Amino acid sequence: MDNIAPLPGEDRFSSEATSAFEEITRGVALLAQVSNYDNNTGLPLVHLWNMLGEEVVSVNRTLAERGLAVWVDGF
């Protein structure tokens, strides 16, 4: 995912972050936008969007706002 990283001092996302991600995305249609590519692996970096009622919500930003990830501009 683009623009988010694990919390400082961690090399991966916590189990709490993983659980929140699963909760936010389970059983719903998502919009994925490829925003960049990882320079080392060539894998796409994406922004995920979820519809909550009439509102489009960024999954990436939600994880950062909940303190489960760090928002990184231009990651």
Automatic annotation (TrEMBL):
InterPro entries: SNase_OB-fold_sf, Tudor_domain_containing. It comes from the Eukaryota. This is Uncharacterized protein. It comes from Oryzias latipes.
